[in-house]
Amino acid sequence: MLRKILSTTALVAVVSAGAAYAQDATNTDTMDKKPAATTGMEAGMETGATPVFPERQAASEDAKSFFGATDQQVLASSLLGWPVYGQDADDQGREQVGDINDIVMGSDGNATAAVIGVGGFLGIGEKDVAVSFDRLGWQQGEEGNWLTINATSEELENAPSFEYDNPNLLENGTAAIREEADQLQTATNNAANNVANETQDLANTAGNAMNQAGEAAGNAMDDMVAGVDQMGENAAETMNAENPMLEGMSEVDMASVSFDQLEDAAVLSAEGDRVGEVSSVMTHGDQSENILVVDVGGFLGIGEKPVAISADSARIMSDGENYVVKTSYDRETLENQPEFSEQALNDNPDAVLLN
């Protein structure tokens, strides 16, 4: 979290500019250049190499080779994992629609899109969508800093998927490299044909052994396919469960749980999504009613507020080691509930306590 907060200045630069690329930060005060006679190398690529970014290589012979750090640069690692907030289709507010999973760079070396993981639950069923940087914005508010996009979760979930299996420039090389590879492949095929003709008798002798090996490989493949099918069934069962966080859990009596065991337990809304954590447990009133104090709302831990929930209106779930509190209130009710304090609870319990 600290790393993301410290990278705020850099993120403002990338979103406002609409592209993330390093600017020339080399000057005579920060870097001493050695002449070619000293280094023994000419500026540019190594002889015989093919540029990773062809368009940028051809841009100028005067392009700088080395860069210093400035406050106008952006590290891709600063963006990765950052939550993205989009438009709520119902009330035009903000809701989290995904996280930054990757950065897409063009043949000119400039970042062109952010790959956002959208949909799914706890990483299950998520899909990647590549979004142009000009749709991202950086919004500073009283409750924290927001990386935003002018799109709803429905629009992103219906957008085309970004497929990592598709070819890309770095993996497949430029046209020149592919042409050389094709020539090498042709030569290899010719050599292989010559060897095959000269060793036909040996191949016939080894045919039976290869057939047996093929049968063994086929059996192994069948076992592998069966294993993959079983994994798919298990994943489907997990997806169809009421809530993956509650898998393997059952309801337990509040009286059997110590207050310490419930601290930091995840709290779920009536819809089943996580809305906060238990910060403390206390008793209240003449009847010693158990009260759960839950931290809700905020962003990256900033702007959270405590609200009080009666333990009688919640269900305590456990697998014997971990605990989850399931409430009967929706997210909006919890986030709009008056802030808890012991003084406020004593003065007006009906307004402060959810029961």
TrEMBL record:
Annotated signal peptide: 1-22
Domain of life of the native organism: Bacteria
InterPro entries, per the entry: PRC-brl_dom, PRC_barrel-like_sf
Domain PRC-barrel: 73-154, 258-328
SUPFAM superfamilies to which the protein is assigned, alphabetical: PRC-barrel domain
Signal recorded as keyword: yes
Transmembrane segments: none
Keywords for the protein's UniProt record, in alphabetical order: Signal
Keyword Signal belongs to the record: yes
Protein name (record): Sporulation protein YlmC with PRC-barrel domain
